[in-house]
Design brief:
With about 375 residues, the chain is α/β, with parallel strands linked by helices. It folds into two domains: about 200 residues, Rossmann fold (3-Layer(aba) Sandwich); about 180 residues, Glycogen Phosphorylase B (Rossmann fold, 3-Layer(aba) Sandwich). Helix content is about 40%, strand content about 20%. It contains 13 helices and 13 strands. The chain is globular, with a radius of gyration of 22 Å. The protein starts with a strand and ends with a helix.
Length: about 375
């Protein structure tokens, strides 16, 4: 019987989108009958046990120096744990990983004789992401070992076709088993939104995120600043991230601070209340800054599950091109045309059933149960 070991960085808390995704993937694989376990490698003194499917392994991360040297030593320890797991696995085991930083150590462990299969899930085109996040020290490592690491993996899973094809090309084997499975969402984990009344005087926009430059919210702020009509546009920001101070400063510099409300991090009922207050959600508006033309953004799936129409600037193969509840924006640096956003909002809000229609679509196409059925069927073909 196939056994899946999902190895990840510390998954001791479900406060992040990544950890929620990993937990949902494994929970739904188990519901599909797969013997799946999360192996969480932590550098913190955190022994919280979320459920019986999470096995935590501690490394001495807190005793390491800060900076690049500390990162290198920490990655070395994590890779050593992964290597031990690979060496003790058997021929019915699948080691499932999110992409690791490239290194000689990782190349050696993947290229060694082994019984298990290794499958890597990719969420990005790494060299472009390294440059965007200014992690320049990984670029030469990627040049030296990136292609070889892909060569010795047994299968590739990408969240967009663009990413899958890039990783497949770098593996050097066009026949390597591969599949594209977009991100999913636990639809039942959030309530369906109650669409607020719209009197034509104020339009409330909502962005829930860990804010970074690729969200492109500066485009929206410039659009609000340039908007000259009588309607008041209010942008609600929920979350945190290293870009939030830049956004608030830009709003002040543009003279639109009264149009921007920063709520910080909210959860549960308070977050539900914000969704019920707002008319339109804000997806990514700057994915092209990552060098990507296709997206599979987790937040877009939550917006659809909650039933709030949203703006998006990337092609997402999980939504049909004529999906009426997404306003597709140009993937460039132009300010967002607020007049067009208002027209889109008024058109969708005139349809009282739009939250239920969006919720139904999410349940049928975006729920993790649907996504993990595809992954299970794919993994079973690896033999």
């Amino acid at each position: 019987m196939m056994r899946l070991l999902y190895i990840c960085r510390c998954c001791s808390s479900l406060n992040t989108g990544i950890n929620k995704k990993i937990s949902a993937q494994v929970d739904n694989l188990v519901k599909q009958g797969v013997n799946a376990t999360i192996i969480s490698i932590c550098a913190e003194n955190n022994h919280q046990k979320l459920n019986q499917r999470i096995q935590q392994i501690q490394i001495l991360g807190n005793e390491l120096p800060s900076g690049v040297i500390g990162k290198i030593k920490r990655e070395f320890q994590i890779n050593k744990v992964i290597n031990d797991i690979i060496r003790t696995s058997n021929d019915c085991d699948i080691i499932y990983l999110r992409i690791r930083y490239p290194s000689l150590q990782l190349y050696k462990m993947f290229s060694q004789p082994r019984k298990c299969k290794i499958v890597i899930e990719y969420q990005a085109i790494e060299p472009r992401e390294y440059r965007l996040k200014k992690k320049y020290w990984y670029l030469p490592m990627d040049v030296l070992f990136g292609s070889s690491i892909r060569k010795y993996t047994d299968a590739i899973v990408g969240v967009t076709n663009e990413i899958t094809q890039y990783q497949l090309k770098r593996s050097g084997d066009p026949n390597k088993p591969h599949i594209t499975i977009g991100n999913g969402f636990d639809v039942a984990s959030v309530p369906i939104r109650t669409s607020p009344p719209y009197g034509g005087q104020e339009l409330h926009l909502l962005c829930v995120a860990i804010f970074h430059r690729a969200h492109g919210l500066d485009r929206l702020l410039h659009g609000i600043s340039a908007y000259a009509d009588s309607k008041k546009i209010v942008l609600h920001l929920v979350g945190n991230g290293d870009e939030i101070n830049n956004l608030l400063y830009l709003a002040k510099r543009l003279g639109i601070s009264d149009n921007v409300v920063y709520h910080g991090f909210l959860k549960e009922r308070l977050l539900d209340d914000i969704f019920n207050l707002c008319h339109v959600g804000i997806g990514t508006l700057g994915l092209h800054r990552n060098g990507l033309s296709e997206g599979s953004i987790l937040k877009a799936r939550e917006y659809c599950a909650r039933g709030i129409p949203f703006l998006y600037d990337a092609f997402d193969h999980d939504f049909p091109p004529d999906f009426p509840y997404i306003f597709q924006l140009p993937a460039d640096e132009s300010p967002i045309d607020i007049g067009q956003v208002i027209a889109f909002a008024e058109d969708v809000l005139a349809e009282p059933e739009h939250p239920r229609q969006m919720r139904r679509y999410a349940a049928e196409h975006l729920d993790w149960s649907v996504k993990m059925k595809k992954l299970k069927d794919f993994l079973e073909t690896l033999g």
